[in-house]
Structures are given as C-alpha cells and as structure tokens.
Amino acid sequence: MSISRRNLLKGAAAAPLASMALPAFAQEKVKIGFIFLGPIGDYGWTWAHNKGREAVEAALGDKVETIYTENVPEDASAEAAIRDLCNAGCKLIFTTSFGYMDQTLAVAAEFPDVKFEHCTGYKRADNVATYNSRFHEGRAVLGTIAGKMSKSGTLGYLGSFKIPEVVLGVNSFALSAQRMNPDAKVKVVMIDSWFDPPKEAAATETLINLGCDIVTTHTDSPAALQILEQKGLYGFGQGADMSAFAPNAHLTAIEDIWGPYYIQRAQAILDGTWASTDTWDGMAQGEVVISPYSAAVTPEAAAEADKVKAGYMDGSFDIFTGPIFDQDGVERVAAGVKMTLGELAVMDWFVKGVESAS
Amino acid sequence: MDFMIAAIITIVGLTTPILLAGLGELVVEKSGVLNLGVEGLMLVGAISGFAVTVFTFNPWAGVVGAAVGGALASLIFAVLVLQLNSNQVATGLALTIFGTGLSSLIGVNFTGRIVAPFGSVFPDVLAKDPFWKLFFGYSPIVYFAILMVFVVGWFLKKTRAGLILRAVGENDLSAHSIGYSVIKVRYMAIAFGGAMAGIGGAYFSLVITPMWAEKMTAGRGWIALALVVFAGWRTGRLLAGAYFFGILMALELYAKAAGFSFLPSQFWAAMPYAMTVVALAIISSRGTAGASAPACLGKPFTPST
Amino acid sequence: MRYKLEKRREPSTTMLVVTPVASVIVTMLIGILAFDALGVDGWAAVRDIFLTPLLASHKWQDVAVKAAPLVIIALGLSLGNRAQVWNIGAEGQYIIGALCAAGVGLAFGQAGGFFVILLMIAAGVIGGALWALIPAVLRTRFSVNEVLSSLMLTYVSLQVLGYLVGGPWKDPNGRNFPATAPLPESQMLPSLEGSTMHLGIIVALILPFAFWLLMSRSTFGYQVRVVGSSPNAARHGGFDAKQTIWATMLIGGAMAGLAGSLELTGALHKIDLGFPSGYGFTAIIVAFLGRLNPFGCLLAGIVLAVTSVGGQLAKTTVHIPDSTAGIFQAMMLFLILASDILIRYRIAKRA
C-alpha cells in the first residue's frame, strides 16, 4: 500500500509544477548516473549492473534518482555520454566498462564537483574511484566442482582476452580443480571478443572434441552452455544464473552483484563522506555470489565447494597461496606465501596445468 | 576417427549459415544487384525464425518465418533500388542498420527464452551413432543448404528463367529491349536473397544456440558477401569456398585449444577477406567467362524511355 | 486520379536541395508519431535528437568532434563518386591511417611537438592512400570491382588493428588490455582550452573550400566530372580514365587516413578495439546526402553528427531504446535515398 503511494507521488514529482505544489519534495533528489556497455536486457554484464542500479533505487529511492544510458560505445561518444550525465545534474556517475577509463578521467577533470566510479579500471583521480569484483573467488568454487566431477580430468576455459581478470579466472579455476584432482588440466581458448555466440559455440565444440568434459566461460553469452546441454555435458553460468538456457548442463553460476557497493557509494554521497578509493570486493562482501547448485552437482563436489565458499566468507581460504608453479614448472610463489591484491591485479602468467596458445 | 568426425560437425556448423546467405546473395548479384544488407537480413531472419518457433513450437514453421522475415526486409531495399533507383551501396548499408535495429526491437520480448534445438530428424540409431552421425546428425537446414547449391546451380545454368536472370545481370538494357522485365526479375532475386539470408540467420537462433541475443550473427553477413566474390559467382565454388572458410575458422580454434601459437589469431580472421581479394584479382585478370562479376553489378537500371 | 513519374530533361537543382531537407523534416514528423505510439514522449525525443545538439551550446563540441571525420572522409569519397569510382573501404583506410600515425608516434617515444605531430598526420595520410592504392591497382590492372575489394580490405584492416594493439604495440603498462599506450601530451593536437574541440575540426571546416576550388576551378576537377559523366567523351577529350581512378582513389584514401590520424591525435589519443566506430561507412551516406558537393558534405556531416549525438542524448533523457534510435536513423537514410528520384523525375498526372 505504502509502496504504491510512494510511486504515485514520485510520478507527480516528475512534473515540475506538481513538485512545487508539494513542499515535501522541495528538497531535490541526488541524481546518480550509469553508463552501460550493452543493452540492459543482455542477461549478462550490463543486466547485472542495471540490477545494481535498481537496488539503489529500491534502497534509497526517496533520496536519490538514477538515470542511465545503454549501448554506449567505447570511443569518443562515451565521453559525450558521460558529460551528458554531468550536465543532467548527476552527482555520482558509474561508468561500467573498462573501455571508458580515459574518457571517465577526461570528463572528471572538467567536473571536479562530480564523483565518478569506474568499473574494472586502474587509473584514479581525486574524484574518480575504481571498483571491481573478485570474480576469481567464484571461479575457485567452479574449479572445485569441475575438478571433483570431471571424468576426463581435462577442463575447458572459454576466454575473451588475456587480461588480468581472465588470467586470474583461469588460474583460480585450474588451481582449484588441481586441489581435487592433481592431474587436472585446463585448456584455454581466447576468442578475442566478449560476445560472438557462433564463435563461442564452435570454440566450445572444439574444447569438447579435445577431451574437455566440463567447460567454463569467461565471455558474455550463454552459447557455450547451450552446446554443453546438447552434448549432455556440464558448464557454468557467467555473470548471472543462466540455468534457463541450459537446465541440465548448468551446474551453478557466478553472479555479479553490484547492488551493495552501489548503495554504499550512493550513501557516501548523501553523507558527504565519499572519497576516491580502489575497491576490490568479493564473496565476503556479497559482490560475488554462487547460484544454487543444480541437482547434477554430486554431494561430494557440493561439500568441497561449500568449504571453499565458507573459506572465502571468513577469510581463511585463498586459492592464490603458494606454492604456485607457472606453465614451465618454475615456482613463482613460495609455499605458504599469499599473493597480494597488487600482484593479482597485474597477473599475466598461467599456472602449471594450463594449456594455452600464449 | 571420432576426433575427425567431431571436427567436421563443427565445420559444418560454421559453414552452413554463410553458405545459405552466400547462395542468396549470389543470385541477387547474378541479377546485377549488390545488396550489402546481408548482415541485417540475417539478424531479421534470426529473430523472426526464433519468434515463430516460440509461438508455434514448430521449428519448420520457424524456418519459414525466417525466410519470410528476411524476404520482407529485403523488399524495402528492392523498392528503393529498383523503383526509386537509389544507390545500392548506400541503401544496402542503411538496410543493415535497419535490420540490426528492428531485430533488437522485436527481440526485447524474446531475450532469455529458449526453444528446443532444431537438430537431426533422423532416428537416433543414425543421428547419434558415433559414425553415421557424420551423415545423419545434422539439422535439416544443413541438407537444405547443400541441396540448394545444386538447385541454384541447375536453375542458373539449365533453365530459361536462370538464363533470363543472368542476362538481366550481364546486360540489363538489352534484356529489357527484348522484352524481359528487368525490375520483376530483380525483385524476385532480391526476395530470394533475403529469404536465404533469413534462413542463414535462423541457423544461429534455432540450431547452433537456440536463443535470441542482440547482434548474434556477429559479422557473418560480411563473410557471406566475401564468399560470393571468392567463389567467382559460381555455385560449385561457393560450396567449396564456404567449406574452405569454415575450415579456416575451425583451424583457428583448434590451433588455440591445442596450445599452438605460431600465428596470431587475427591472421586466421583476416584470411577469408585477404584471400577473397587475391581471388578477385586472379578471377578478373584471367577473365574466365562466367567467373567474373556480372557486368551490371551495382549499377542502376535506367532505360532511356 | 493517377500519377506517374516523368523523366526530367535536366536534373532538378531545386530538388537537389529540397529533398534532403524535406526528408529530414518528414523523418522528424514520423518520429514524433512513432515514438508516441511506442509510449515515449515523441516531441521530446525528436527535439533531443535533432534540435538540442544544435541549440544547447554544451553539445556543440560533441557535434563538431563527430562531424569532423565524417566531413573529411566524405569529401574524399564524393570526389571518387563523381568519377564513378566507388570506394567503400574508407573505414579501412581510416583505420590504417590512424595506425600509421600511431606507429610514427611510437617511434618517437615521448618526443613530440609540431614536427612530430605533422609527421604523424603525414604518415596517416600516406597510410590511408596506400591502403586505397590496393583496390586502385586491382581496378586499373586487373579490372577488379573496387566496391568489393575495398570492402574486403576493411575487414583485413580491422584484424591488422587487432593484431597490433593486442601484440607488438600493446601498452606495456596497460595490464595486457589490447590498447596502445595513450599518446604523450606533446603528440596531441592542440585543442580549445576546456573543451574537446581540436585542430582537426578547423581542418574539416577549411577542406570543403579546398575541394570546391579543386572541383570547380581546376583541370583535374573538370577531368573528374567528364570521366564520371561521359567516359566516351573523356576518352575523345584525351583524359586518361585510369589516371582519374588512381587519383580519386588515392585522394579518398588520403582523406580517410587524415581523418584517422586527426581522430587519434585530436580526440582519442590511443588506439584500442573500440577505435573503429564506422565513420568510414557513415561517410558514404554523408557523401550522398551532401549530393557529392563539398559544402553539401559539410552540412550533411553536421546533420548526421547531430542525429548521432542527439540519438544518444535521447537514450538518456527520454529513454528511447537503443534499437529504436537505429531504426530511426535507418528510416531517415531510406527517405533521403528514396527522395533522390525526384531529382531526375517529376510527378505528373497520368494522361
């Protein structure tokens, strides 16, 4: 009842005359802007960010207003789109793709009073913060399940580019699988794109033909899962629960949950406590969530996966703890040593047992 | 052996959509029209095929829907270039923008839904057999594509209608002067090209990945355009060329998955286009009859009456 | 009463100007109705797409930055089109031009200044021209259709870009993301203080005059027009058709390469996979909309930049879906292309 009433009033407030008549709304809402890479209906990266935006509206809807632009290319038009949001009066702007990095910094220099949050980037300024998720923590859970369940011991990893995020995913997946099965191997194919369903499908078939019986994806479409479904094999959802696309093949998924971070940062603007930070949260903060396991996940695999999850939740587990060997068998991290976040952020080498073209 | 069979099945999957779209475009170009809107038509076909299948639960109806969708979209192009003599290059590019936008607009309501994959219709003893699946394990669209290669080849070479179509493409003015309707022939060719591109698009949304995703054809329409040229406007070579392109695409993935990195992946991706340019040069310099561009390709038909 | 199309004796110069303007106005009217039908405030959407970018001074820089490459490329293409040379690979020449400029910049390391920037731009011009030389040679030596060869080469150039920014030219401090390092400040084109308007915009404003002089005041311009309109007359008049093809293709490629190098040094300052944004293809449409006239290209480039900047704005302000913005743009192009017929034909009552 009260919710529908608030919506009514919100609708009225949108018309300037009506809002003047209502003194309660005289205080202006703080505007928060979002720049999205894809369409909000992509069931992947942008869909997840838009869920985060909706979470902000739900939590702080009486104090903030959100606006967004979707399908913004990563070229000069991104700068224009970000500037549009500044001119529209946004006080906080989330730019949700790596390719907006320099554009975000350029506009931020022009609008020192606006705060910016750039996703997955590494350049900051006084009014530009960066944030990312530790997707590799989720990848450790998937690797554990895959290592436990794979019969061939050969796993597939469908990637986009050899950037740190993907390298971390591959290594976390491989190291976790090897904890369950020391002989586990991971074959990697990078398709040089985040989105190319036909190529993702063909690459998955290729990995299967080379002996992989479980394939995980680090590209944005459910194409791989659909191939695995047709072959009666298993895989994982990327970014969101994708079980609808492959009810049998889908074991579980890594869900990107941006809501908690977005709400926290919006609240900081309202409180006047916002500061430029570099945030890299993971499972413990609720940013990386593992979807419910499907019935196909064996009880043993589920138990092991739950242990990894619990370890990340209470901070007692980190897959990037030595000894870690690289592809040539050289020890890169000594026994007992934990890789720092700084080291992880620039990781560009694969661990032992990963088979890749470069 | 099993390994080879699986690899061949992947290659067939990569090849079939470009073969279908290429075959349609070949007929369009043979009639003297250059339609650069193939990518847009494939997207329209992908969404119309998917939408019809969602409503009817019948993938055969979906394929028909894809053909109709592609043909209808191509008629916009036909009216502009045939009736209003607009520039074919610019109109084709606009058609791709239009098809991309239209498919996403319709697709909003179909994102996140799935249909059963339109797989083999043969009994499982054949379709799932480790060996016989090499011949019987495909979607009916695959056999349709190969059949159409021969149908189109026969049509162009052996039938009167095919002869007229080629005459219209080689010399529209003299075809007109002996009483053939250049416009009518080209309308039919363009609609056929649209229907084939539509079915090619539906191969993505009904067979490979039975779902809808924006821009899911990811540039295959442009490869289909290259293919027609690579084949020197001949149906037999189109079939061989399509499989050659398919093998190139598969080789890239196999090389990567096997851990070879002797050539950058961009090399593989550039190959179909680079080889098309080379093939163009060879075809054109030899001047083999019937294996060069139709003389009226891309030129507006302007009878002096 | 029935109507029919009747061929005009002379192409109508009135219609040459009236039809594009009318098409834009009709598009606006249809847009208002269509958006209203889709549940969006139609007038607000059309206002933001067509008018706000022109009326709001803070949007001028976005329009200018977008229009500059379109105008420069379209000028080169329209010259070729006049001679019946159909270079549709400008996107590829733009990419190769930008890559050549980036290569020169990389070779100079952190060094910069006037001469380095000039060298970078010169490299872009030459690179674009050389990339266009391939279809030109194929056409003149082997009579290969340049529409097809130049289009194919665009896709090759995209892979060249992918290889360079993901391989040898990858920013060593860029965490393996496929992109070149940002240009040092000293290699950037000067731009207006506190705005994104760079020197390339001035180039785009001056070039139409240069092309107008070239087309209407030089023997070369005359040659291009004669070769294009009546190849037979050109042969009798002693004009070399092959030479014309060479020249117009090279100029087309050079202009696209220039646009690419200006975009690199003036606007984006680095090359990544998002660098090619289809300017080379859109410029084909700009050239047609501008009626292959240098000043027409300038205006048409601005119109397309306005709708593109405005389309993005309307996505934010009135939330028209991205797909609708695409359909809308295509509809405008269809209308413009369709109305071309009125230049050569008139509507007459059927007798």
Automatic annotation (TrEMBL), chain A:
<keyword id="KW-0732">Signal</keyword>
<dbReference type="Pfam" id="PF02608">
    <property type="entry name" value="Bmp"/>
</dbReference>
<dbReference type="GO" id="GO:0005886">
    <property type="term" value="C:plasma membrane"/>
</dbReference>
<dbReference type="InterPro" id="IPR052910">
    <property type="entry name" value="ABC-Purine-Binding"/>
</dbReference>
<dbReference type="InterPro" id="IPR003760">
    <property type="entry name" value="PnrA-like"/>
</dbReference>
<feature type="domain" description="ABC transporter substrate-binding protein PnrA-like">
    <location>
        <begin position="29"/>
        <end position="291"/>
    </location>
</feature>
<feature type="signal peptide">
    <location>
        <begin position="1"/>
        <end position="26"/>
    </location>
</feature>
<dbReference type="InterPro" id="IPR006311">
    <property type="entry name" value="TAT_signal"/>
</dbReference>
<protein>
    <submittedName>
        <fullName>BMP family ABC transporter substrate-binding protein</fullName>
    </submittedName>
</protein>
TrEMBL record, chain B:
<dbReference type="GO" id="GO:0005886">
    <property type="term" value="C:plasma membrane"/>
</dbReference>
<keyword id="KW-0812">Transmembrane</keyword>
<dbReference type="Pfam" id="PF02653">
    <property type="entry name" value="BPD_transp_2"/>
</dbReference>
<feature type="transmembrane region" description="Helical">
    <location>
        <begin position="89"/>
        <end position="115"/>
    </location>
</feature>
<protein>
    <submittedName>
        <fullName>ABC transporter permease</fullName>
    </submittedName>
</protein>
<feature type="transmembrane region" description="Helical">
    <location>
        <begin position="267"/>
        <end position="283"/>
    </location>
</feature>
<dbReference type="GO" id="GO:0022857">
    <property type="term" value="F:transmembrane transporter activity"/>
</dbReference>
<keyword id="KW-0472">Membrane</keyword>
<feature type="transmembrane region" description="Helical">
    <location>
        <begin position="238"/>
        <end position="255"/>
    </location>
</feature>
<feature type="transmembrane region" description="Helical">
    <location>
        <begin position="187"/>
        <end position="206"/>
    </location>
</feature>
<keyword id="KW-1003">Cell membrane</keyword>
<feature type="transmembrane region" description="Helical">
    <location>
        <begin position="63"/>
        <end position="82"/>
    </location>
</feature>
<feature type="transmembrane region" description="Helical">
    <location>
        <begin position="6"/>
        <end position="28"/>
    </location>
</feature>
<keyword id="KW-1133">Transmembrane helix</keyword>
<dbReference type="InterPro" id="IPR001851">
    <property type="entry name" value="ABC_transp_permease"/>
</dbReference>
UniProtKB/TrEMBL annotation, chain C:
<feature type="transmembrane region" description="Helical">
    <location>
        <begin position="297"/>
        <end position="314"/>
    </location>
</feature>
<feature type="transmembrane region" description="Helical">
    <location>
        <begin position="92"/>
        <end position="108"/>
    </location>
</feature>
<feature type="transmembrane region" description="Helical">
    <location>
        <begin position="326"/>
        <end position="345"/>
    </location>
</feature>
<feature type="transmembrane region" description="Helical">
    <location>
        <begin position="245"/>
        <end position="267"/>
    </location>
</feature>
<keyword id="KW-0812">Transmembrane</keyword>
<feature type="transmembrane region" description="Helical">
    <location>
        <begin position="114"/>
        <end position="134"/>
    </location>
</feature>
<keyword id="KW-0472">Membrane</keyword>
<keyword id="KW-1133">Transmembrane helix</keyword>
<keyword id="KW-1003">Cell membrane</keyword>
<protein>
    <submittedName>
        <fullName>ABC transporter permease</fullName>
    </submittedName>
</protein>
<feature type="transmembrane region" description="Helical">
    <location>
        <begin position="146"/>
        <end position="165"/>
    </location>
</feature>
<dbReference type="GO" id="GO:0005886">
    <property type="term" value="C:plasma membrane"/>
</dbReference>
<feature type="transmembrane region" description="Helical">
    <location>
        <begin position="273"/>
        <end position="290"/>
    </location>
</feature>
<feature type="transmembrane region" description="Helical">
    <location>
        <begin position="12"/>
        <end position="35"/>
    </location>
</feature>
<feature type="transmembrane region" description="Helical">
    <location>
        <begin position="63"/>
        <end position="80"/>
    </location>
</feature>
